[in-house]
Amino acid sequence: MNGKLILNQLSQYQPGKQIEDVKKEYNLSHIVKLASNENPFGYSSKVEEQLMGMKHSFNVYPDGYTTNLRASLAKKLHVMDNQLIFGSGSDEIVQMLCRAYLYPGVNTIMATPTFPQYRHNALVEGAVVTEIPTVNGYHDLEAMLHAIDSETKIIWLCSPNNPTGSIIPKDALYDFLNRCPKHVLVVLDEAYYEYIDQELDPEAINLITKHPNLIVLRTFSKAYGLAGLRVGYGVSNENTISNLNVVRGPFNTTSLTQQAAIIALEDQEFIQNSIKKNKEIKQDLQHYLDELGWNYYDSQTNFLLISTPISGDDTFQYLLERGFIVRSGEGLGCPNTIRLTIGSEDDMEQIKTLLGKLHKETSKEI
């Protein structure tokens, strides 16, 4: 399809409501944003402490090869330097993948609902998009395999999946990779990897040697709390990485970003504390939702996709007017749901109270 026609059919990314704008619009003094799955516990204190003591040459271009961060990450992951690629968030690597492998006449397969940038960037490149509905929030891997043909170039697996939070079971992933044709690049997006329960970890990076058609994406935006600095990475075989480097911008991660990521990577105590708090607070919220009789999807992330008694848009508005920004599921392909980031303990106590009031109000209406 003509590129201009594609652009006419697509819409630009709509960022969530900003805190200051909501304060003014609703005359509120305090707003809590629980819409973008950011880490409510911030980021490692060592990042700020060490960056302030460093000399920064902002007049000089950053290291286009990300040499130091590359070395630190390769050591941690037990991979070779040339098996890594970095991007301005892992979503830039999604864009690179589409640019490198998709074009008019080929197709790509993904779940629905899932991270929308897979579809968006694939359509920009002119590829045909095949979407396979999830089953209770989980990828239908069997249906995805059946959808493959000779013109399939990429299959996208988001695990844990955004927006449902569900993880692809380890055995199912291994079976899928064994059966997937080798001409298809399997993109395993693990943006929420750090939140996965240890016993469910598929250790996907260890599969790259056996499956050269696999690339694993991760990010520093979620558990590491560096969303504002934009740095993600991909791990694959050297040929795939080489192809991506052809379409990668030469200076796509900043000097400051690279330094911050190195420091954050070393502070695993912060990561473990964040994960522990997230799990405890999420379980408490789940117990409360059980008491209300509200359903939610299985989640191995720092968010829950929650079924609501009224539309997701109406629930979003109800919470917004009371100082909480969440994400309506209506625009995510999940009617009558909200996606709620797990916040601090105090914030979640407040939102539980609001959800309880909404439950009572809607129950009276019924």
UniProtKB/TrEMBL annotation:
The protein's required cofactors: pyridoxal 5'-phosphate
Reaction(s) this enzyme catalyzes, per UniProt: L-histidinol phosphate + 2-oxoglutarate = 3-(imidazol-4-yl)-2-oxopropyl phosphate + L-glutamate
EC number(s) on file: 2.6.1.9
Domain Aminotransferase class I/classII large: start-end pairs: 30-350
Modified residues (N6-(pyridoxal phosphate)lysine): 222
GO molecular function, one term: histidinol-phosphate transaminase activity
PANTHER family recorded: HISTIDINOL-PHOSPHATE AMINOTRANSFERASE, HISTIDINOL-PHOSPHATE AMINOTRANSFERASE 2
Protein's UniProt name: Histidinol-phosphate aminotransferase
Species for this entry: Virgibacillus byunsanensis
